[in-house]
């Protein structure tokens, strides 16, 4: 038999969650020239390093939550960035090209190849126990399926490589692979996640927090099946957009052409699989009775006669909704102590990770970039604390049946208001447009006049609390540089009271920003998947659980919808939906979409949600409104009168549903077909 060899120094790198050490391996220290696959996989150390390399491609362009350098998909109609050579404008206007942001394609297929080789060869290892081999093989299977998921989400249908891999010594023509259909991709990923789940443990220790668990595999499966059931691949009969021109090299349509309601049932069952593990719950923080710097006393939501009278998990009587939400993202809560964190890369993030995201959110006061902000649309999406819309919600868009045409509140918080305890947590001088909002608003939105704490600032004079306004001429508002918020509204999500950068690094080190674990998949998303999928069922379905140990009877009922949506509302300190909203699928769908927009803001969902729902042609093309940032503090009434932001133009064209495949890949693989609207040639 011909022995296969591989140059190890070309493929071994940093692994995620396989060791507490974060240094890159110095492969020259370990390897001489060439080693056989047999030599590699008989060795415990080399086998672990091979798996580490399979993990390593999950960072950079394949991150789920990150700054925009490698992954600009955390920015859509909700969150924007104002630097990077106007790339946000090109992203929003569809002016990017076939060569832009293409690192993920090669990285995913490199990871797929490494994982496949590991799966095919690890059984020869005699230094691991059978249980260790099963776990490692399941990890490799998970990571391989996850790479396919990342490709499917971004590019649409992609080629599924043979299980045994490809002989890289063959010609490009011999190696060419056609694209599989969307359903083939989704079903393959789902089946691989089931196989992985069988041998993955329910939980990991603190030093292995970035390794997948059974819940991670099942939750990823639920995400994939939700997308496969969504309008992007499951068009209703009246839908005129079915992507009939997305075909393979033989003219076969890659997108489903007929509506199949049972896909929603499969997605609901997949989410139910995660729920039935009884391994996860939404994180909640107890009531804070006293004030401390950066940690305010709990603000009790208005009584609703229901949730306000009950203790967690049936109500919010004994929790702090603000801190419960904020702590998930800002590093206050360690990943191993977060009961809703299902899959994370932990702190194994690239130079564009969450630290850098926060560095671009921090105001100029502590040398933050001050360039990541929120749109007026996102600001308006948050409810008032009694669960109603804010007056003037999307008023400027003048959309019948959607825009709240009431006048926006005028006036500002006075010193007397603060002393009397009105409008908490707003400080003096803040617009009353931001008063009486739900807790997630205050954990996420850095409105003009927000209080920043900078508790770990280097300079004593810079330590907070500091109230930061975004008026022109005030240092953090409009300037002739790139360091200003185009809408006058910043982002507080992911920011910890300790975070500061007054050591003037501005070098992507962000050494004074607390480390945060990436929330790639959390339990709140699984609950929302369950509610969304159930809502689309007109009939009843019996679907086997992932391990075929039970059968779920799935029907759209108010009680089942509540299992998905009520925990989200309770943790947010908000009243329940009305019976009318539960009873009407169209109204519930509208509420569900808004709940995802709020709950998952900044976590890499909105960009893709708008596309899978086919809402992007409307939502991404609506003009972006924000504060009138040319106004000074003396003109603060005008500052808070929303205007169209000319530096953030918007449009949406059909080709923007799927990212283009690069010309280089099209040249290498002659059987690849391009996504609709994009070109084949340089």
From TrEMBL:
Keywords: Cell outer membrane, Membrane, Signal. PROSITE patterns: PROKAR_LIPOPROTEIN (PS51257). Belongs to the SusD family. SUPFAM superfamilies: TPR-like (SSF48452). It is found in: Cell outer membrane. This is SusD family. Pfam families: SusD-like_3, SusD_RagB. It comes from the Bacteria. The lineage of its organism: Bacteria, Pseudomonadati, Bacteroidota, Bacteroidia, Bacteroidales. The keyword Signal applies. InterPro entries: SusD-like_N (IPR033985), SusD_RagB_dom (IPR012944), TPR-like_helical_dom_sf (IPR011990). Residues 361-678 form the RagB/SusD domain. One of its GO terms (cellular component) is cell outer membrane. Residues 98-226 form the SusD-like N-terminal domain.
């Amino acid at each position: 038999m011909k022995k296969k060899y591989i140059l190890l120094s070309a493929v071994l790198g940093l692994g995620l969650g396989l060791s507490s050490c974060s240094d890159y391996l110095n492969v020259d220290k370990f390897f001489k020239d060439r080693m056989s696959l047999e030599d590699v996989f008989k060795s415990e150390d080399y086998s672990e390093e091979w798996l580490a390399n399979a993990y390593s491609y999950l960072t950079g362009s394949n991150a789920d939550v990150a700054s925009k350098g490698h992954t600009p998909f955390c920015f859509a109609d909700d969150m924007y960035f104002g630097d990077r050579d106007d790339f946000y404008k090109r992203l929003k206007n569809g002016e990017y090209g076939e060569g832009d942001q293409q690192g993920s394609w090669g990285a995913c297929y490199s990871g797929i190849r490494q994982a496949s080789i590991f799966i095919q060869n690890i059984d020869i290892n005699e230094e691991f126990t059978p249980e260790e081999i099963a776990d490692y093989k399941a990890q490799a299977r998970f990571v391989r399926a996850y790479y396919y998921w990342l490709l499917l989400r971004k590019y649409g249908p992609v080629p599924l490589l043979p299980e045994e891999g490809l002989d890289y010594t063959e010609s490009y023509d011999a190696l060419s692979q056609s694209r599989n259909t969307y359903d083939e991709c989704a079903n393959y990923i789902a089946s691989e996640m089931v196989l992985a789940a069988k041998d993955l443990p329910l939980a990991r220790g603190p030093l292995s927090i970035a390794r997948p668990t059974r819940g991670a595999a099942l939750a990823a499966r639920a995400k994939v099946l939700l997308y496969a059931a969504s309008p992007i691949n499951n068009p209703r009969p009246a839908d005129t957009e079915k992507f009939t021109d997305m075909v393979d090299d033989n003219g076969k349509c890659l997108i489903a052409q007929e509506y199949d309601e049972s896909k929603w049932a499969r997605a609901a069952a997949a989410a139910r699989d995660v729920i039935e593990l009884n391994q996860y719950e939404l994180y909640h923080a107890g009531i804070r009775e006293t004030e401390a710097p950066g940690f305010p006393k709990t603000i009790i939501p208005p009584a609703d006669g229901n949730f306000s009278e009950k203790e967690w998990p049936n109500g919010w009587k004994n929790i702090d909704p603000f801190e419960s939400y904020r702590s998930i993202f800002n590093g206050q809560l360690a990943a191993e102590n977060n009961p809703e964190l299902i899959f994370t890369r932990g702190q194994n993030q690239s130079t564009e990770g969450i630290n850098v995201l926060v560095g671009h959110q921090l105001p100029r006061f502590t040398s933050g970039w001050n360039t990541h902000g929120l749109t007026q649309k996102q600001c308006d999406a948050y409810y008032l604390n009694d669960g109603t819309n804010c007056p003037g919600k999307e008023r400027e868009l003048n959309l019948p049946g959607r825009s709240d045409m009431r006048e926006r509140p005028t006036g500002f918080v006075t010193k007397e208001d603060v002393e009397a305890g009105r409008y908490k947590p707003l400080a003096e001088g803040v617009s009353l447009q931001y008063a009486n909002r739900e807790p997630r608003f205050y954990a996420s939105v850095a409105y003009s006049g927000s209080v920043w704490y900078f508790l770990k600032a280097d300079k004593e004079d810079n330590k907070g609390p500091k109230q930061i306004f975004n008026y022109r001429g005030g240092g953090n508002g409009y300037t002739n540089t790139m360091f200003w918020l185009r809408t006058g509204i910043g982002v507080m999500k992911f920011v910890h009271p300790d975070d500061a950068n007054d050591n003037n690094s501005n070098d992507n080190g962000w050494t004074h920003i607390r480390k945060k674990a990436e929330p790639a998949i959390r339990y709140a998303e699984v609950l929302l998947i369950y509610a969304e999928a159930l809502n689309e069922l007109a009939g009843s379905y019996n679907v086997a659980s992932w391990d075929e140990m039970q059968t779920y009877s799935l029907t759209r009922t108010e009680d089942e919808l509540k299992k998905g949506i009520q925990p989200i509302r309770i943790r947010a300190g908000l009243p329940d939906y009305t019976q009318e909203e539960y009873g009407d699928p169209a109204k519930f769908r509208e509420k569900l979409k808004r709940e995802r927009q709020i709950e998952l803001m900044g976590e890499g969902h909105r960009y893709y949600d708008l596309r899978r729902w086919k809402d992007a042609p409307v939502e991404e093309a609506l003009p972006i409104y924000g504060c009138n940032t040319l106004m000074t503090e003396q003109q603060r009434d005008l500052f808070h009168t929303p205007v169209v932001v000319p530096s953030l133009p918007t449009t949406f064209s059909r080709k923007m549903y799927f990212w283009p495949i690069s010309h280089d890949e099209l040249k290498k693989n002659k059987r690849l077909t391009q996504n609709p609207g994009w070109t084949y040639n340089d």
